[in-house]
Design a protein that fits this description.
- By secondary structure, the chain is mostly helical.
- It has ten helices and no strands.
- This is DUF1206 domain-containing protein.
Length: 280
């Protein structure tokens, strides 16, 4: 028990250290920048036919890499995203003591730990992408999702696995929409010292940003489910494919513009979280 307590205490001290918190702030800004770039690519897709980059994370990083100061910024983004992942690892250890509890306490501890693991994976994947583009080895992800889905289709019950992943992604999208509508995202920021104007701005950005991101997730998940139902890996086209699917819908330009603006709002919300972080 004392060993577990010491590990948890060490995790708490690591998570609260000034160095890691400052790096995590950089990571939150980086996460916001990625979303702003995705929003810009989506707007270009809606009104200008696109810039040649996929409207997703890899396209955003590729766009940044092409800028004059892109490579140094990518290194900073990658380091910040790794710090965010480490912060999430500290969060898992922080809640470790609750795993052996009973009832609601155990449920809360397992839920928080699961969310922290999922976020850590997302941040690490983005960090790896940023490192690749910083070293010149990155490439746009257009077509990679279809190749991955085609490979999974070859596994035993692979078709069902793709469909299950699609349903999970849809669930994540619904969660984001609910989180935005219910303002649950406000639990992630510490606005005690923030002026009233900042509180209103944070609330509005989250109310717009989370549902927009949720819609994008929902379309990605729906495409995965459709790919599984039709046994067609070409339908599993990731976030870029989701953006293009929205564009092809009735009033697609308007819908995609609204989604892009919402994703931009989420990016701005990440900046605010970097200024007033509670925990990531």
């Amino acid at each position: 028990m004392s060993g577990t307590g010491s590990v948890t205490g060490a995790a708490g001290r690591a998570g609260d250290s000034d160095t890691l918190q400052n790096l995590a702030r950089v990571g939150l800004v980086a996460y916001g920048v990625v979303h702003l770039l995705i929003a810009w690519l989506a707007l270009q897709l809606a009104w200008g036919g696109g810039s040649g980059q996929s409207a997703d994370q890899s396209g955003a990083l590729a766009t940044l890499a092409e800028s004059p100061v892109g490579k140094p910024l990518l290194w900073i983004l990658a380091i910040g995203l790794v710090a965010l992942a480490l912060w999430q690892a500290a969060e898992v250890l922080r809640w470790r003591s609750g795993w052996s509890a009973t009832g609601e306490a155990r449920k809360k501890a397992l839920g928080r730990s699961g969310k922290a693991v999922a976020k850590a994976v997302v941040y690490l994947v983005l960090a790896v992408l940023a490192f690749r583009f910083a070293t010149g080895g990155g490439q746009s992800s257009s077509g990679q999702q279809q190749q991955t889905a085609a490979g999974v289709f070859g596994w035993p019950a692979g078709r069902w696995l793709v469909g299950l992943v699609g349903l999970v992604v849809i669930g994540v999208g619904v969660y984001h929409v609910v989180k935005g509508v219910t303002k649950k995202f406000l639990e992630q920021v510490d606005l005690a010292s923030a002026p009233q104007s900042a509180r209103r701005a944070v609330t509005r950005l989250g109310q717009v940003g989370y549902p927009a991101k949720g819609v994008a997730f929902g379309v990605v998940g729906a495409l995965l489910v459709y790919a599984a139902v039709t046994f067609d890996p070409a339908k599993a086209s990731g976030l870029d494919g989701a953006m293009r699917t929205i564009l092809d819908a009735p009033f697609g330009k308007i819908l995609l513009t609204l989604v892009a603006l919402g994703i931009a709002a989420f990016g701005a919300y990440c900046f605010v979280r970097a200024r007033y972080p509670e925990r990531t």
